[in-house]
């Protein structure tokens, strides 16, 4: 009997403790939820003001072991409650949320929430498609460390209406973060989305969509980390625009190294086809190193603020113009304080006929705009360039068969219909003739001007013809190449070396330092003007 009483006492004590702890954590959950929503609004305002989204918590009802609330999402153009998206949220209080205990997850948590899209005026048609089931639902667990681990599911859809149909395989979304959104790990994966007309004459098919983001907020207000966006296979069956591509990928990787930012952004596509033509594949990687982190943070903040103000005033174009002006006058000089390096490498496009490529690398000096302007206006453009750049390397290879094939394909696309091999041959012949004309210009002397030669005498033209040619591009087999290297005071252009001042003078970008313009002063003769007679004086009359 005594043992039974002890056991009952222990159960009552544990139950009372659990009840008290649940009531206490319930109050913490409400505060933490409001904090998360506030931080979410700040995140969108600072990083995506153009979205115009606002989040808020409504109808919070707190109980002892659980609470309910609505999370309401509205857009800037929303006219009222009928144009909002609402998520119903049921929250089990910690330290041992019942929904987690049922899954044998016995680690203490602040709370666990089940989230479902609500059926309202905005989502009524979507609920009809899903036959009354919420299209988006999932769970989120809030830890005592303020971490939030959420797992959402988007339902599969098979829907037909009138002359159109939609087929969606569903999607999984994982979103793990902290309540202050300092660290965000998110992923969205879906297998298949098909939208098309009933007769299949037009449609879009998207397969293998993957979006992954692992970023951390820096002390300067922007995020660094890795992000990946991939579409494995896409087909657009639209009259006059039919095209498809495989493995479209965008990847970014940025890191903060002390006071500077280092990162790269890569674009790639494995295959692009349009109107039955294989247009090719390509890749471009843009890299930056030693970019001033403080200046970048200020720019991101100013950019988003100006954009938000422009959207709020209904005049985003004016905001864009102001941003562009600020970039030139304020942002660039600040970003270049740490002498960053910018590069594009590799960058190429290839098709069945060949491959063309570009490689670029440039290292900047600190930029003083007043100094640059003063040097340029004083006919010291070479000194302005040296003040701006430490080095500049550029390599361009244009493959002639590849370029001709691309020109022919562009002409076919412009016609908006596929062609057979015989017609394609005619387009290639036309493109070949066009490229030959372009090649004459690309391999012409870069220091000569056709307009200048129009005013030369026959002797001057003959003398000019004897001089060594300096072509824009050099022909090497099936390629046209251009190579530019600049460092210090010298520039090498296609293996020919010049001082920077000499090169810019030959290019007519600056005048020769020795040349002067003399203006002869002409004597200006001012006619004499007779003085007016004094008041009251007699005016002599002319004799008859």
Number of strands: 22
Assess the beta-strand content as a share of residues.
35-45%
Give the helix level as a range of percent: 25-40%
Q: Average pLDDT across residues?
A: 81
Oligomer: single chain
Structure report:
- With 544 residues, the protein is of the alpha+beta class.
- The protein has twelve helices and 22 strands.
- A hairpin with a 5-residue loop joins strand 12 and strand 13.
- Helix 4 runs antiparallel to helix 5, helix 6 packs antiparallel against helix 7 and helix 8 packs across helix 9.
- It is globular, with a radius of gyration of 35 Å.
- The N and C termini lie far apart (157 Å).
Write the layout of secondary structure elements.
Blueprint: H1 2-47, E1 53-62, E2 66-75, E3 85-93, H2 98-101, E4 111-117, H3 124-129, E5 136-142, E6 147-154, E7 157-161, E8 164-168, E9 171-178, E10 183-197, E11 203-217, E12 223-237, E13 243-257, E14 260-274, E15 277-292, H4 293-313, H5 316-335, E16 341-351, E17 354-364, H6 369-377, H7 381-388, E18 389-399, H8 400-415, H9 421-442, H10 450-454, H11 458-466, E19 474-476, E20 479-487, E21 490-493, E22 496-499, H12 500-506
Antiparallel strand pairs: 1-2, 2-3, 3-4, 4-5, 5-6, 6-9, 7-8, 8-10, 9-10, 10-11, 11-12, 12-13, 13-14, 14-15, 15-16, 16-17, 17-18, 18-20, 19-20, 20-21, 21-22
Helix pairs in contact: 4-5, 6-7, 8-9
């Amino acid at each position: 009997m005594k043992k039974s009483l002890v056991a009952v006492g222990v159960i009552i004590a544990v139950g009372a403790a659990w009840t008290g702890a649940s009531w206490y954590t319930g109050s913490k959950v409400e505060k933490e939820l409001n904090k998360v929503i506030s931080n979410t609004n700040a995140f969108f305002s600072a990083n995506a003001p153009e979205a115009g989204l606002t989040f808020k918590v409504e109808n919070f009802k707190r109980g002892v072991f659980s609470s309910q609330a609505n999370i309401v999402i509205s857009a800037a153009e929303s006219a009222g409650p009928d144009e909002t998206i609402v998520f119903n949220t049921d929250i089990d209080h910690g330290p041992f949320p019942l929904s987690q205990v049922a899954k044998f997850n016995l680690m203490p948590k602040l709370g666990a929430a089940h989230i479902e899209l609500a059926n309202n005026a905005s989502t009524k048609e979507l609920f009809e498609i899903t036959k009354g089931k919420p299209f988006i639902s999932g769970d989120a667990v809030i830890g005592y460390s303020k971490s939030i681990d959420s797992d959402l599911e988007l339902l599969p859809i098979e829907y037909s209406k009138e002359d159109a149909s939609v087929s969606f395989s569903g999607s999984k979304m994982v979103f793990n973060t902290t309540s202050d959104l300092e660290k965000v790990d998110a992923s969205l994966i879906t297998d298949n989305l098909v939208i098309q007309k009933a007769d299949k004459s037009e449609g879009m098919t998207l397969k293998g969509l993957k979006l992954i983001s692992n970023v951390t907020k820096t002390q300067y207000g922007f995020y660094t980390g890795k992000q990946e966006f991939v579409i494995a296979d896409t087909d657009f069956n639209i009259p006059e625009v039919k095209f498809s591509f495989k493995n479209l990928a965008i990847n970014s990787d940025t890191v903060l190294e002390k006071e500077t930012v280092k990162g790269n952004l890569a674009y790639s596509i494995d295959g692009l086809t349009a109107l039955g033509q294989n247009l090719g594949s390509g890749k471009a990687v843009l890299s930056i190193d030693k970019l001033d982190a403080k200046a970048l943070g200020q720019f991101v903040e100013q950019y988003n603020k100006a954009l938000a103000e422009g959207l709020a005033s209904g005049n985003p174009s004016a905001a864009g113009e102001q941003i562009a002006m600020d970039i030139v006058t304020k942002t660039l000089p600040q970003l270049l304080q740490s002498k960053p390096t910018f590069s594009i490498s590799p960058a190429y496009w290839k098709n069945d006929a060949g491959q063309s490529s570009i490689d670029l690398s440039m290292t900047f000096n600190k930029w003083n705009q007043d100094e640059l302007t003063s040097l340029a206006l004083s006919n010291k453009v070479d000194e302005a360039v040296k003040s701006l750049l430490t080095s500049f390397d550029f390599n361009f290879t244009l493959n002639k068969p590849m370029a001709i094939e691309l020109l022919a394909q562009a002409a076919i696309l412009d016609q908006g219909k596929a062609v057979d091999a015989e017609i394609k041959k005619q387009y290639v012949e036309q493109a070949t003739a066009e490229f030959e004309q372009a090649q004459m210009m690309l391999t012409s002397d870069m220091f000569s001007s056709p307009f200048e030669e129009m005013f030369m005498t026959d002797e001057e033209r003959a003398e000019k013809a004897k001089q060594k040619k300096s072509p824009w591009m050099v022909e090497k087999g099936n390629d046209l190449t251009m190579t530019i290297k600049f460092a210090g005071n010298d520039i090498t252009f296609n293996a020919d070396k010049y001082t920077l001042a000499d090169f810019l003078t030959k290019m007519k970008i600056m005048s020769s330092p020795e040349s002067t313009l003399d203006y002869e002063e002409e004597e200006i003769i001012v006619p004499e003007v007779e003085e007016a007679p004094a008041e009251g004086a007699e005016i002599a009359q002319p004799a008859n």
